[in-house]
Amino acid sequence: MSESVEKEDKAKKTKECTHCKEYIESLKRLQAEFENYRKRTNNAVEQAVATGKEYAAAAFLPALDSIEEALKLSQDNDPGIILIKKQLEKALGVNGIVEIVALNKPYDPNFHNVVMAEEGSPQSTVTAVWQKGYTINGKVLRPASVKINK
């Protein structure tokens, strides 16, 4: 009888071990799924922040254009307007928004929108900038509207 009891105990322990292994595997899968969920959520949050910055920056660019136009029209280069322009440019720069330098550069369709083209040399060179373009963290926020030689 003791031998059969030992066999039953051994079978019971083996069954319990199998259940433990199943629980451990299930726990490992659950941990991996949670880690993937956490990464996806972090990526989604980062993307939402980046998109929000893009929208906010795009909303401020017309104001910066207007300030620059006001400075062009101002006879005495009003120091107040200059200060506002510098503050706005600094705020944009801190958030990764950078002006696209276009004048006298080769035409690049990724960064420039041709508004006017005329015969001239050197070919495919930006000769005038009608509206400044900007990038945000290397991505074009607004292409520069330019005149080129063709």
Describe this structure in words.
The protein is α+β, with helices and mostly antiparallel strands and 150 residues long. The protein has a domain at 97-150: Nucleotide Exchange Factor Grpe, Chain A, domain 2 (Roll). The chain is 59% helix and 21% strand. The protein contains two helices and six strands, in the order H-H-E-E-E-E-E-E. Helix 1 (2-73) runs antiparallel to helix 2 (79-94). It is elongated and about 110 Å long.
Structural features:
150 residues; alpha+beta; Nucleotide Exchange Factor Grpe, Chain A, domain 2; three-stranded antiparallel β-sheet; three-stranded mixed β-sheet; 2 helices; elongated
Question: How are the SSEs ordered, and which strands pair?
Answer:
Layout: H1 2-73, H2 79-94, E1 97-100, E2 112-118, E3 126-131, E4 133-136, E5 139-142, E6 144-149
Q: Write down the Rg.
A: 32 Å
Rounded average pLDDT = 89
| Helix/strand order, N-terminal first | HHEEEEEE
For the largest sheet, list the strands in their spatial order.
1-4-5
Number of helices: 2
CATH C-level class of the domain at 97-150 is Mainly Beta
- The CATH architecture of the domain at 97-150 can be named as Roll
The name of the CATH topology of the domain at 97-150 is Nucleotide Exchange Factor Grpe, Chain A, domain 2
Q: Care to count the β-strands? A: 6
Q: Helicity, in percent? A: 55-70%
Structural class: alpha+beta
- Percent strand equals 15-25%
Which superfamily, in CATH terms, is the homologous superfamily of the domain at 97-150?
Head domain of nucleotide exchange factor GrpE
Backbone shape: elongated
How far the N terminus sits from the C terminus, by CA atoms, comes to 103 Å
